[in-house]
């Protein structure tokens, strides 16, 4: 079951990869978490994939994470009388609530809540930013905008409002239906789209009620203004670079990616870097050198996971994409410069016993060249702390809670085994050594560093560190 790398791979399932054989193939190649994109597919189709993953989990004995990615609100223009129009630079386009077909002078924008947030100077982006408009006048049911960057626009193209907070919930009617379906089917993470403010996460958490982790997708500039609070309120974060690159200048995205990763590491929250990582492999069996460098950069920066989207969901080479990502991660983690960066950016532990114990475990494992760090956890907090420390050795997580193990599938360096909780020190040490040996994390006579909380089974009470040697 062991993976010989620390960073994780998230693979999106779709028409190219939704059969049981292909899902098994992608898992064997290195996929640790499977993403279900609810912008596409039916509930029956998603239910079949969830069932396949859970059967695979039983067959392999390895907890597998499932991420449900909600679509979020989609703002779109209405229809044009001729299906499409050409908008010239300097022209004026009126957007309103009138549903009749539009032309080069006006078109429907059937989202009254958008107009409430518009004012003179607000930018409007159409078709992923291909067309750019600036509002010159707005009311409660209309806006007049000057065309700054022109081009052709056709029916139902998407609209982005980058420099305004829209009075829209991140959970539309479809999202709430999809969310309830996902929770009923026991997924592990809910990917929350269109996050603008902390209130969006609070709303989702109230509905989810602890039944899954909340993975907040950072794709709106307004979310960056509340970055620290959003990370705190989330269980994991995704750097959704495609949408960020529409609403922000492309040159801003790389530095923002580094900032998000750095702040997630400081808070001990898993962070996934996503979008267009190996885009050319949708059609080609090999990536461009620039794409390989892009994946490597995310790993050098300390991301917990990197994600494949269309490459595995709809591409012609889903297996090759996972294999390539696996090889890139392996290569980076063999580079001494990678570990130099990890050490340089290592944050100080907080002034509490769990952080002190976990930081000490990392140092002890390094000093005595231990084979692994073994964590006992119920809620996952002990193991998330260990992942934040970025030790040089793998983190073997022992937990009796399968949902906890599945959520830890996205965390850096963590590999989980389901094991009954222990009641005394002798059992703790014996079981940790035996499982480390059985699953090839440690050989006889090698040491492991064990962390746990006493009383045993108490969530978040990490207060014990023990060094043990694996017996023959």
Short structural description:
By secondary structure, this protein is an alpha/beta fold.
Broad CATH class of the largest domain: Alpha Beta
In total, the number of domains comes to 3
The main β sheet shows up as:
8 strands, parallel, barrel
Which structural class should the secondary elements be placed in? alpha/beta
CATH hierarchy: architecture of the largest domain: Alpha-Beta Barrel
CATH H-level name of the largest domain... which superfamily? Phosphoenolpyruvate-binding domains
Explain what the structure shows.
With 472 residues, the protein is of the alpha/beta class. It is built from 17 helices and 21 strands. It has 3 domains: 231 residues, Alpha-Beta Barrel (TIM Barrel), CATH 3.20.20; 77 residues, PK beta-barrel domain-like (M1 Pyruvate Kinase, Domain 3), CATH 2.40.33; 117 residues, Pyruvate Kinase, Chain: A, domain 1, CATH 3.40.1380. Helix content is 37%, strand content 23%. Helix 15 links the parallel strand 17 and strand 18. The longest helix is centred in the first third of the chain and has 18 residues.
């Amino acid at each position: 079951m062991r993976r010989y790398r620390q960073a994780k791979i998230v693979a999106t399932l779709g028409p190219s990869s939704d059969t049981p054989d292909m899902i098994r193939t992608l898992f064997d190649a290195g996929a640790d978490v499977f993403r279900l994109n609810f912008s596409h597919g039916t509930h029956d189709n998603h239910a079949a994939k969830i069932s396949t993953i859970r059967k695979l989990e039983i067959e392999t004995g390895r907890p597998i994470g499932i991420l449900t990615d909600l679509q979020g609100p989609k703002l779109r223009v209405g229809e044009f009388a001729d299906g499409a129009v050409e908008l010239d630079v300097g022209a004026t386009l009126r957007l309103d609530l009138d549903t009749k077909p539009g032309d080069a002078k006006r078109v429907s924008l059937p989202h009254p809540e958008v107009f409430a947030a518009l004012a003179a100077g607000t930018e409007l982006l159409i078709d992923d930013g291909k067309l750019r408009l600036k509002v010159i006048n707005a009311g409660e049911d209309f806006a007049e905008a000057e065309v700054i960057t022109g081009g052709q626009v056709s029916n139902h193209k998407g609209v982005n409002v980058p420099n305004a907070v829209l009075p829209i919930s991140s959970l539309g009617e479809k999202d709430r239906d999809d969310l309830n379906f996902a929770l009923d089917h026991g997924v592990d993470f809910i990917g929350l789209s269109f996050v603008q403010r902390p209130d969006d996460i609070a709303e989702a958490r109230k509905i989810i009620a602890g039944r899954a982790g909340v993975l907040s997708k950072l794709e709106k500039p307004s979310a960056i203004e509340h970055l620290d609070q959003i990370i705190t309120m989330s269980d994991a974060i995704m750097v959704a670079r495609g949408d960020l690159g529409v609403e922000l200048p492309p040159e801003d995205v790389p530095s923002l990616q580094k900032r998000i990763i750095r702040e997630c590491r400081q808070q001990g929250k898993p962070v996934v870097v996503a979008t267009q990582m190996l885009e050319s492999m949708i059609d080609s069996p090999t990536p461009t050198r620039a794409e390989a460098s892009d994946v490597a950069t995310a790993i050098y920066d300390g991301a917990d996971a990197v994600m494949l989207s269309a490459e595995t969901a709809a591409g012609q080479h889903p297996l090759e994409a996972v294999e390539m990502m696996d090889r890139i991660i392996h290569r980076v983690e063999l580079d001494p410069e990678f570990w130099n960066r990890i050490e340089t950016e290592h944050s100080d532990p907080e002034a509490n016993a769990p952080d002190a114990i976990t930081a000490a475990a990392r140092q002890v494992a390094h000093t005595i060249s231990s084979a692994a760090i073994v964590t006992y956890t119920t809620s996952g907090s002990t193991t998330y702390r260990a992942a934040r420390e970025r030790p040089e050795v793998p983190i073997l997580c022992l937990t009796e809670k399968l949902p906890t193990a599945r959520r830890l599938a996205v965390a850096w360096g963590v590999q989980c085994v389901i094991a009954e909780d222990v009641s005394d020190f002798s059992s703790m040490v014996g079981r940790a050594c035996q499982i480390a040996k059985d699953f090839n994390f440690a050989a006889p006579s090698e040491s492991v560093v064990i962390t746990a909380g006493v009383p045993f089974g108490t969530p978040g009470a990490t207060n014990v560190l023990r060094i043990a040697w694996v017996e023959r």
